[in-house]
Design goal:
Blueprint lengths: L1 H36 L3 E2 L5 E10 L2 E13 L6 E8 L2 E7 L2 E5 L6
Antiparallel strand pairs: 1-3, 2-3, 3-4, 4-5, 5-6
Length: 108
């Protein structure tokens, strides 16, 4: 019985790690696309996970993750952007305080 509990805990931790890595990769792609569309430069070519919390969407429990990134209009000044994702879907994005889009999340 103890071995089953260990397997469940390790399996759950592995799933969470892989799911977070997949969401981070997708957030990086979305941040790059948002910066390209806004004609700004994504700095450091990365995003940082800032927050993870459970939410209910269509009766399902899902993870909502907040990512941040930095970009520059002129290559000298750093500005901040944020992405919020539910699962692998973009919920909203903000570039330096300006909300640039909102996608209503539908259950998968």
């Amino acid at each position: 019985m103890e071995m089953l509990l260990v397997i469940v805990i390790v399996g759950s931790a592995t799933w969470l790690w892989l799911d977070t890595a997949r969401a981070r990769d997708l957030a990086r792609q979305l941040a790059r696309r948002l910066c390209d569309e806004s004609k700004v430069q994504l700095l450091d070519q990365t995003v940082a996970l800032r927050r993870t919390w459970p939410v209910r969407v269509g009766g399902r429990l899902m993870l909502e993750r907040g990512f941040s990134f930095e970009f520059s209009e002129d290559g000298a000044h750093r500005l901040h952007g944020q992405l919020t994702m539910v699962g692998v879907r973009l919920r909203h994005a903000v570039l330096d305080g300006e909300r640039i889009g909102r996608v209503i999340v539908q259950p998968q």
